[in-house]
Structures are given as C-alpha cells and as structure tokens.
Amino acid sequence: MRRLRQIAGVPAMAVVKANAYGHDAPLLARTFLEHGATRLAVATLGEAHTLREAGITAPIMILGYVPAWQAAEAVALRLTCAVYDLELAHALARAASNHDWRVPVHINVDTGMSRLGLYHADPVQLTADVVAFIRALHALPTLHVEGLFTHFATADEADLSYAHTQLARFARVLAAITAAGVRPPVIHAANSAATLRLPAARFDLVRPGIACYGLHPSSDTPLPPDFQPVLTLASEIAQVKLVAAGTPASYGCTWVASRPSLLVTLPLGYADGLRRTAAWREVLLCGQRAPIVGRVCMDYVIVDATDVVSPQPLRCGDPVVLIGSQYDPHTGTLKQISAEEVAGWLGTINYEVTSMLMARIPRVAS
Question: Is the same domain home to 239 and 284?
C-alpha cells in the first residue's frame, strides 16, 4: 500500500470487495489503513456491513449497485454510495433526514465500460446530463456530492488506445462540471492498472484493487519487481497410503495407478474453491511439485506423492502449498506456484483464483 501511494502521489482507496479478493476483508482492510489507505471500497452493502461489524470506522464506499430499499441501512452505517439515478439518490436523502449527518455520494459516469453509470452515446449530451444530475443532487440538502468517478475497461491491456478514449471522455465531463461550478472535490478513475500506467488518470484519489495483494493486474501490466503476493494457500496431509498398481482414486475412478503409488489426501476441495471442472494440476510437497489425481471432491483432493523426495517419510500433518512458495530441502531451493500459474491451468485470471477461495478456509496472518 505504501508503494502504491508512492507511485500514485495521491491518496488511495483500497478495494477490499469479494472478501478482499479472497484474502480476508477485515484483516486486509485494517492492514491497508495502517499503511496509508485513507478509504476502503467494496461492491455491496453486505460487504460494507461486514467491515463495520469488525469495528472498522474508516470511510467505506460501495462502488456497485445499491437498491433503493437498502438506502436506510447504507445511511445508518455511514457509507458512501455510488449514484447514477435519482431513485437511489432520493431514497438516500429520505433516509438521511432521520440522522444528523449528510450522506456522501459519488457519481458514477460510464465513459465506455457499458456497465453502471450515467451514460449517453453523444459525449456532448453526456456532459450536459452529468451537470444536470449534479444540480439535481444539490437540490437534496441531506446529500453531500463528494465525488465523481469512472472505470476503465482496458487499462490492463497492451493497447491503451481505448483507455485513452475513456480518459478523454472523462476529461470532457470534468471540464463541463468545472465550468458549471459543480465539480465535486474528489475525482477518481484509476484502478490498479491505471494507477501504474496512466498518470493522467490519478486525479484526487486512486482505487487499487488487485495490486494491493501483490498480484499482477494482467500479463500486460506486471507489478514492479519489489511487489510480492500477500497470500499463501496451504493445507496439510490428512492421510498417507501406499496403493498397488491398478488401484483407482476418487469419484468415478477416472485415475488409476499405473505403478505402486504413494497417495496423500488433503482436506481441501471444491467447497473451498478448488475447481472440479478444470484441473488444479499440482501442489508443492516438500518443495516439490506433485500432481493432483482423480476428481476433486467437495472436501478433499488426492495427490500422487510417489516421486516426492522427502528427508523422512511423509506423514499426517505435513504442510502442502497450493499457492505460494515452499522450500525444497532436496535441492536447497525455494519453489513456487503462483496465482497466475493456477489461473493458466484453470483458463481464468488471478482475480478469480483468489476470489473463489471460500470463507471456511481459515485465514491466518503472519
């Protein structure tokens, strides 16, 4: 977080949605705040509620959709909401009338993501619509129009031309609201990739997400070399067994030992976030790669440890790493399986690999 702030040169709102990308939202939120983040961002009211229940009092913004029926709770929790229609704005204003504070809102402007936000295909009309929307919000005295933001669709791609198009559209909006005298004090646009690659997008605040966890925004947008992943996904051996050639393993008997094999069972399965439909191929055992064999079960996976060279016989409780690093005493080297490598196995991105790790996996800070 300190490095991201150093790179950006402006305050940072750390994005901790999806349980901090699968890491642990309360734990990481506190860590980010202790190391320089000034705000937090989530996707849903439920995620914000979890942080408030954990005792976090820092400003929290809901970047995503808030239905009008959740407005009262959002106000009671002193949250900042993204707004792009008057229905939510009026609901927030009504709810705020029961409290002695004004509710901060940030206006979402869709400059090319085609997801959420004020939108018009004609850029001239879009600027007029944004000015009119801000003035409509100013007519609601219990609201505080604190910010205005947009989101990039391709800031992590090799070709930044569309990101520059979005930035130009956003700049046109900013010029219009500045000329109209309705520019909010906090302007933001930069996600992790834009924080690293688009200095013109940093404005008053950056919104790093994936980079906060030491994970690369994409193969086209690697992190600086001094960044390291925060997360290690580890388990331990639940049982060790030697099976004869011809012995099947796991549901459907889709894998059959071609030789006498040493199999170890790990207490981790698809209910923990390991995919059943795509192969999580390997784990680190004694710092050596060992393949997962057979189908991933709800609560278990089976690993073929036959070729693992261990200084002593493998036994129940021995550590296993699925994401992260482990020392190999046989070669004296540190071996690694990265979230990016796992993403390649699964045909997805590192964001999904960590975000799909379920809450029943214990999170331990070290």
Answer: yes
Query: What amino acid positions are annotated as catalytic residues?
Result: 17, 251
Q: Going residue by residue through the chain, which has 366 residues, state the pLDDT in tens, using 9 for 90 and above.
A: 999 999 999 999 999 999 999 999 999 999 999 999 999 999 999 999 999 999 999 999 999 999 999 999 999 999 999 999 999 999 999 999 999 999 999 999 999 999 999 999 999 999 999 999 999 999 999 999 999 999 999 999 999 999 999 999 999 999 999 999 999 999 999 999 999 999 999 999 999 999 999 999 999 999 999 999 999 999 999 999 999 999 999 999 999 999 999 999 999 999 999 999 888 999 999 999 999 999 999 999 999 999 999 989 999 999 999 999 999 999 999 999 999 999 999 999 999 999 999 999 999 998
Q: 56 and 21 in one domain? A: yes
User: Which uninterrupted H or E stretch holds 255?
Assistant: strand 255-256
The backbone torsions φ and ψ at residue 148, rounded to the nearest 5 degrees and listed phi first, read -150, 140
User: Are 209 and 245 in the same domain?
Assistant: no
Check if the beta carbon of residue 143 is closer than 8 Å to that of residue 105.
yes
User: Whose CA is closest to 263, among 295, 236, 291?
Assistant: 291
Based on the structure, what is the number of domains in the chain? Answer: 2
Residue with tokens 């981790």: 268
Same domain, 208 and 238: no
CATH number at residue 302: 2.40.37.10
Measured between alpha carbons, how far is 5 from 17 in angstroms, rounded to an integer?
Answer: 19
Q: CB–CB of 160/154 below 8 Å?
A: yes
Read off φ and ψ for residue 103, nearest 5 degrees: -90, 120
How far, in Å, CA of 211 to CA of 213, rounded? 5
Same domain, 72 and 172: yes
The domain of 327 spans 233-355
Same domain, 38 and 98: yes
